[in-house]
Design brief:
By secondary structure, the protein is α/β, with parallel strands linked by helices. Helices cover 33% and strands 27% of the residues.
């Protein structure tokens, strides 16, 4: 483990997106925000608790949780954490997206710009979905990468990806793709002046991608600086974009440079989009003896 220990420690704010309705879970998320689902293979802790614990281990000093759907439950959960761990009082902040979350995750994220404790000129914003389970080593690798590229992160937005065999992904999600589509985001990149830039992001149904392919799969963690977030604010009034992926696609199509950084493919993440994903995750961890 390499906690965050340099000038970045006071500049990086983690933004955890917990505002969505999680409609694919149907009855469950009508009464419970998806990030507050208790995961059997995580010792019955919630996805949100797992993510917060990982961020604290990494030395992150400021964590903002964006709430929306059933936000009072997020309030209660964070309050209970702060009562147990007094040192989290100054590190954990809740931001209410109001009704913006109904417009999509891009709008949920941008609701943090209304809070001047977070939205500061020198801050960097590490955006993490609240319904994805990340292995600690994956987040740790991202932090190490940022520390080793401090010259880039002040200037460019950062997207992370990993190279992985499609056959491995199909094995990972075999219990899911037998019953429903499983969409993954794939990046195309180009190198210029010793830097690797994002060329395009496309979504593909994993079921129709050939097994022999090796793809560059997007890791759903992004780093944005103050300047790029202000550009997002301007663009959302001009274009139709509901997700971060959509606004990034628009920007690269209009000449914006976004750095794409490869992360070690040994480390895993699990999007919990549906009951099948949750079942698949618990089954896999049971087989792994965890």
């Amino acid at each position: 483990m390499l906690p965050l220990k340099n000038e970045l420690q006071n500049k990086i704010s983690v933004i955890i997106l917990c505002a969505g309705e999680g409609t694919r879970f149907k009855e469950i998320t009508k009464s419970l925000p998806k990030p507050l689902l208790k995961i059997k293979s995580l010792n019955n802790t919630t996805i949100l608790h797992h993510t917060i614990n990982n961020c604290i281990k990494l030395g992150i000093n400021q964590i903002a949780v964006i709430k929306g759907h059933l936000g009072y439950q997020i309030d209660e959960f964070i309050s209970s954490l702060q009562k147990i761990k007094k040192d989290l009082t100054d590190k954990l902040l809740i931001i209410d997206s109001g009704f913006d979350y109904k417009l999509g995750p891009l709008y949920s994220f941008l609701s943090m710009t209304k809070n001047n404790m977070i939205f500061k000129k020198d801050n960097l914003f590490l955006v993490i979905p609240g319904d994805t389970i990340f292995e600690f080593n994956l987040l740790n690798d991202i932090i190490i990468t940022l520390m080793n590229n401090s010259n880039l992160i002040q200037e460019y937005p950062i997207l992370f990806y990993r190279k992985i065999k499609v056959s491995n992904l199909k094995e990972k999600y075999k219990n899911v793709i037998q019953n429903s589509p499983k969409f993954i985001s794939i990046v195309q990149i180009e190198s210029k002046n010793s830097k690797t830039f994002l060329k395009a992001i496309q979504q593909e149904d994993l079921r129709v991608v050939q097994d022999i392919e090796i793809i560059r799969q997007v890791i759903p963690v992004f780093l944005f600086n103050f300047k790029i977030v202000n550009e997002f604010l301007k663009l959302k009034e001009k274009i139709s974009a509901n997700t971060i992926r959509e606004i990034i696609t628009y920007m690269i199509n209009n000449g914006e440079k976004i750095i794409a950084i490869e992360i070690d493919n040994r480390f895993e993440f699990y999007d919990i989009d549906s009951k099948l994903d949750l079942y698949n995750y618990n089954l896999k961890k049971k087989k792994d003896g965890q």
